[in-house]
Amino acid sequence: MNPETTIIRVKVKPNARTSTLEPMAQGEFVAHVRSPPTDGRANAELIALVARYFGCPRVCVSIKSGAGSRMKRVAISNR
Description:
- With 79 residues, this protein is of the alpha+beta class.
- The protein has one domain (5-77): Conserved Hypothetical Protein Mth637, Chain: A (2-Layer Sandwich), CATH 3.30.1200.10.
- It is 18% helix and 38% strand.
- The protein contains 1 helix and 5 strands.
- Strand 2 (20-23) and strand 3 (28-32) form a beta hairpin.
- The longest helix has 14 residues, at 41-54.
């Protein structure tokens, strides 16, 4: 892993009214996404939400583990 890469843990709650990313205790985040958890739509929205929150392009954000679960490890690179 690149030294400029940050890993965060995110709990995703799909089918929310609004899309938000909220920091929680110990560096974890809760993401409320409007998209349903089908066909990768919630994951795509999560990537866009994390990129917007950290002010980086979407290509710098990737899901490292948990793509099929609500608890995910998301990598943010500083390329």
